[in-house]
Amino acid sequence: MKSLVRIFALVVRYFYLIKTSFPRILELMYWPTFQMILWGLISKHLTNSNDTIIQIGGVLIAGVLLWDILFRSQLGFSISFLEEIWSRNLGQLFVSPLRPLELVLSLMTISFIRTTIAMIPAALLAIPLYSFSLFQMGLSLMFFFTSLLMTGWILGIFIIAAIIRFGVAAESLAWGAIFTLAPLSAVYYPVETLPEWIRWLSLSFPQTYVFEGMREVLFSNNFNSNYFIKSIILNIIYAIIAVIVFLVSFEGARKRGGLINTGE
Amino acid sequence: MSENIIEVRNLSKKFRNHHAVKNISFDLKRGEIKGILGANGAGKTTTITMLLGLLTPTSGSIKILSTDISKDRYKILNKINFSSPYVDLPKKLTVRQNLYVYGMLYGIKNINQKIKDVAKELDFTGLLDIKVGELSSGQKTRVSLGKAVINDPEILFLDEPTASLDPDTADRVRTFFEKFCKTHNTAIILASHNMEEVTRLCSSVIMMKDGRITDQGTPNSLLKKYGKKKLEDVFLKIARDKNN
Description:
Chain A is an all-alpha fold.
């Protein structure tokens, strides 16, 4: 119970930050909406050019929106942590009874809130603009959302572990690291498009199965639970590794004095 | 005889080739205010950071409230607190929001009333709805001290608590700590360069130089031992003495 109160305390702290800053709320919604409009126009152009690829429009928009769920989840997690670094508050937090894993759980919660705030306007706008509803995926959308959210958190844990280890010099990872995974995540094309020798790497990422599953839902109206199960199993494996890396990094920072000096 | 609530034994910290703290030992009793004095780089902040559990010692042991903090520091974290110029409170949150969050982290009941009481004691009631980033450094220090006492700690660690305060506010803060220690029986470890402050508040003093404890005792016993009239002169003698 005390642990839940501490997690809630940090969620309240991050929520205060979002609530009191209109530019922050706007920034949260701006990029997903902008991306959706841009890719929506591109797919509309393709659709107008050739009737045989009419479904591609929806696939591209769905890919953009689902990729942004992953990106926003990771970014929401990492940025909330960076707020502690930027405000030199990490030392205060870890002298309080807060446990490192409680910090991680609070970052997950706020990441969920931020991702939801970011994605709902973009998903809703896609309906009148392009007659495409992400919600037509129904329950499968919930599964995809859950899996991508988890993957975003895992990437976030690796990133904050790197920031604790290497200091603020590693903060650019919060914005850039995820894009190195994009070509291998089969966001806009199937895994078969990738060269054969690298497919194994693509298939070792949980998000790949979400995008493969998304295409199957949109093309065949069939939710393939195998994709979802594989995605979740990979997420669990990576989550265990990420938490271990984070705890090792945290203990390393205690040895070096990094918890009090980071951000200065 | 009052019980020891901190027992430090043979504590050392080495960063690569630099020995920041070398084999120090001391105790702190309930209600006692102990000053740690030393020039910059003497090891004061490193010592306090180890006592807080933010830094792992290379060797030695620290017992706080009978708990070995290398084994179970979370058991005692709600009974201690600290204030330091090396850390801040989130600047974009108001003072009230910050104290509310920390009140929850420390499991305080009736947080709103507690915030009012602390703000009144440290004279920042009028600042409660202002963002921390908009405060002057003196106001920030008072708010940080408010956060440091929000859980009525049994032990308080203060690093340069009045460094950025004007003489009037600094005096009020010292009076606050004198009263707070008496009413709550709180022990304080105070790292400071302000000799007047140390003489006024501390019942015992540790002198540090190059990571070692060069001397310790009551302010009066140190004055007598070194034949000086002011603690500052004792400090200067120790800091400049090449044999120490």
